[in-house]
Amino acid sequence: MESPRLPRLVRFLIFNFVISLVGLTLLRIGFYLHFQAPDASIPVSVLSKAFFIGFRFDTRLILIALFPVLLLGWIKPINLFDTVRGRRIWGTYLTIVATAIGLAYLLDFGH
Description:
By secondary structure, the chain is mainly alpha-helical. The chain has helices at about 10-35, 45-70, 85-110. The chain contains three helices and no strands.
């Protein structure tokens, strides 16, 4: 018996969620490695708690960003996979969101 497959939109959102989470986690690790003080000894418990809080923040941020696609992506005229208009709308939306999040991280690095 074959197991039911997830809809394309859900698979697309899961893929984007995982890629975004990996990317933001790598940025957080890069930020820590670049700005850590050479003489500072941070306990592993404090560091792991800080990274866990950052992980939760990134997860929440990505879910909020992808929620409109999940909520509205099923509508036929703006369906992500069935219409050119839908691909343009959601492609533009996701590009703007990714650019805004990336810009916020870059500004945080620079600050």
